[in-house]
Amino acid sequence: MDRTSEFRELYDAHRVAVHAYFVGRTGDRWAAADLMQEVFLRAWQRFDELRGRPADGRRAWLFTVARNLSVDAYRHERGRADAEAALRHEPAVGSPSAHAAVVAADRVAVVSDAIAALPEHQRVTLALATSGLNSSQIATALGVPAGTVRYRLSDARRTLADALARYDRPEHGTEEP
Amino acid sequence: MSLDDALAAWATTVRLPDAAAEDVYRRIVATPAPRQLGARWWRDYTNDFTARMVASTRPARWAA
């Protein structure tokens, strides 16, 4: 397999998780995309270091670079034009009924707000979990014990469940009249 | 909608669209990879250096 094909495999295998990591750090998927590009650009330039490593070793290498990137420089840099361009990529979401769609969208918004308010270490861990990584893989990515990952996930989920429970109380108007 | 469903829905709202991910990939591989030194470069370099040094310091009578 040539260099480009092998790099393509690496990119496809890890890009979602690396992007999710930066979404957790920045809260902005376009800033996260810039940072993800920076990580994979370094991987491309130093690919010979990565080629002989097992999957976990490659993940550890990528996330070490990711953790060492200066995220602050990318925060709040994306403008409205980028956000609007992003919206043009959004697929239309079908809905079984208008009311159900509104309630579902509200619940996602509640969860989104609650995620934004989480401590960063919980938000990053949760973002990685939603990208499809298991606790062990997240532990490798973050350089922390798997037990810590499970603890953070449990805490984050409890916070989100509480936020949804508050939203579901009748005074918030989600019940049918 | 359960918490897991809401989380999955949130994940789709922050995920990078495939077209954008493809653009990122194309930009990366369009960047020339730095030239790597071969595994034998140091041996070749020192062999060459030694040969030149020996040749340049050879006594004049040998060169005649």
Structural account:
The complex is a heterodimer of chains A (177) and B (64). Chain A has 177 residues and is mainly α. Chain A contains 9 helices and no strands. Chain A has helices spanning 3-26, 29-45, 47-50, 55-68, 80-89, 98-117, 120-130, 135-142, 146-168. Chain A starts with a helix and ends in a 9-residue tail after the last helix. Residues 83-95 of chain A have low confidence and may be disordered. Chain B is mostly helical and 64 residues long. Helices cover 69% and strands 0% of the residues of chain B. Chain B has helices at residues 3-14, 18-29, 41-56, 60-63. The longest helix of chain B has 16 residues, at 41-56. Chain B is rod-shaped. The chains are: A mainly alpha (177), B mainly alpha (64). The A-B interface holds A 3-4, 7-8, 11, 15-16, 19-20, 23, 29, 32-33, 36-37, 40-41, 44-45, 47-48, 86, 89-90, 103-104, 107-108, 110-112, 115, 126-127, 130-131, 157, 160-161, 164 and B 1, 3, 6-11, 13-17, 19-21, 24-25, 27-29, 31, 33-34, 36.
Keywords:
heterodimer, A: 177 residues, mainly alpha, elongated, B: 64 residues, rod-shaped
Task: Describe what is shown at a glance.
The complex is a heterodimer of chains A (177) and B (64). Chain A has 177 residues and is an all-alpha fold.
Helix and strand topology:
The complex is a heterodimer of chains A (177) and B (64).
Chain A: H1 3-26, H2 29-45, H3 47-50, H4 55-68, H5 80-89, H6 98-117, H7 120-130, H8 135-142, H9 146-168
Helix pairs in contact in A: 1-2, 1-4, 1-7, 2-4, 4-8, 6-9, 7-9, 8-9
Chain B: H1 3-14, H2 18-29, H3 41-56, H4 60-63
